[in-house]
Amino acid sequence: MNRHYRRTMLFIVLALVLVLSACGSSTNTTSSSATQAPATDKPKEAEPSPNKEEKEKVVYIGIVNVPVTLNQINDQGDSAADNAIALINDSLLDLNEKFEFLPKIADSVETTDNQTFVVKLNPAAKWNDGQPFTTADVAFTLKTALNPKVETNFKLNFIEGLNDAGKLEEGTTEISGLKIVDDKTFEVRTKTPIDPLIFKERFGTKVFFLPEHILKDVAPEQLSTNPYFQKPEVTIGAFKIANFAQGQYVEVVKNTDYYRDVAKLDKIFIKVLPATNLVAQLQTGEIQMNSVPVGLIPITDYEKVKGFENVDLASGNPSVPPEIFFNSNKIADPKVRQAIAYALNRTLIVDQLLKGQGEVIDGGIPSYHPYFNKDIENYSYDPEKAKQLLEEANWDKKQPIEFLVPVGNKIREQAADILVQNLTAIGLNIQVQKFDFPTLIQKVQKGDYDITIFTRDFYIEPSSYFTLFKSTNPGNFLNYKNPLVDELITKGETEADPAKRKEIYNKLQETLHEDVPSLAVYSEKRLLAVSKDVLVGKPLDIGMFNNINEWDLK
């Protein structure tokens, strides 16, 4: 039941019983931008309400993908999980929609040589149980998450003392590139000089921390099954976990002991909904906004949502595209993968499903990304060329190709139907299996698929996209191997000169385009919807939660 409806019902009841009560009146609050207090200042508590019966301030966010976990060091590559994790965990730095890095747990990150990075923590930083956050927590998190015995997709292969897979070697417990200076200062040394952008994004914004005082006695091989990760109650963020009903919702409540300005909202709910329900609940006020990329509003509903009087609607940048990923152990010949690329009528998907509100690209990074290679010519729709390549590869057309499709995103499911029609038309034997996203990811990580389709996260740092294709990467679920690609990825990760990095990543994209270990299907313009009841807070392509403690309702 939305806030306006509750307020209206309250007034009706008062009128019926002819009772005037000060407790029943509503109070207006004014919005002001919260300013970050100096690190040594005591955090400001939320203003107490003069009205004891004033309703809680709760924001409901709609998503269509199911968060698979709340594990800070093993998000399993799930964007929905990242949304939930970001609500209850601060990183060292945050990123806003202008691509600017903001201080969070870290007051500063500095380097004089692009190889040694000095990080100073906010002196006031503390866990939500009141324990101080110190460099001991940083060291514990890194040594734990990078231990090869710990079940995690966490890796940092650019740091000195870690192997090419971004992990500690078996039997090693210390990271030579990590130096603890004092309780609030530490240094990280990289293997070679790197672009500071790599460090700030991949270490500063993507690392979430574990409380040493809670988990220090848990054996590494038992960590993933520890009850803490089912409901991580001790975290460091503006909100803390209240309930996690997998497949249904995530409920967080404000952390009244937050080291920065305490949140103005009391609660946030992330609701998992079918896309049609998401749009309907925006109209009824049951949710206040959608979330990207896991709560996309179908572009076909643009005019409908635009007509909602209670909602503001904006069109964002073209999205990170859903990609077709090939299991190279099953579809090893690049000619077969190229044939599939030529067989797909992706322009039809953009024109019909997206009503022209999108574009066709081949690579996994969106066209507005600064490292996007604009010189690459897309694979055209050419069924005859596709058939020719299959003949050259001696592909047995009777051989079944298992195509795993995640449910929940209506446009993506409809696009997959068109892809299947295209592939069947050139004689391929496509066997479609549909799964919820957590189940699909488990199968993909086990290599139990031939091709699949889903969307990855957005990154400013290009190496974060391309590390997937490195043969030594444990997260390379494609089983893809190409020595030149490995070489270019390593060069891109270790080159500090932005102009030279641009050349490296252009060459890398050209090589991947030829090999086709993955192929983008479409890049749609994102629809960002937010209720007019929301004073502060809205869906963004990036940096959606960087000011979560300032979010507020009318």
TrEMBL record:
SUPFAM superfamilies: Periplasmic binding protein-like II. Residues 26-54 are annotated as: Disordered. Residues 1-22 form the signal peptide. PANTHER family: PERIPLASMIC BINDING COMPONENT OF ABC TRANSPORTER (PTHR30290). CDD domains: PBP2_NikA_DppA_OppA_like. One of its GO terms (biological process) is peptide transport. It holds the Pfam family SBP_bac_5. InterPro entries: Peptide/Ni-bd, SBP_5, SBP_5_dom. GO terms for cellular component: ATP-binding cassette (ABC) transporter complex; periplasmic space. Keywords: Signal. Gene3D superfamilies: Dipeptide-binding Protein, Domain 1, Dipeptide-binding Protein, Domain 3, Periplasmic binding protein-like II. Residues 41-54 have a biased composition (Basic and acidic residues). This is ABC transporter substrate-binding protein. Residues 26-40 have a biased composition (Low complexity). It comes from Paenibacillus agri. Residues 101-475 form the Solute-binding protein family domain. GO terms for molecular function: peptide transmembrane transporter activity.
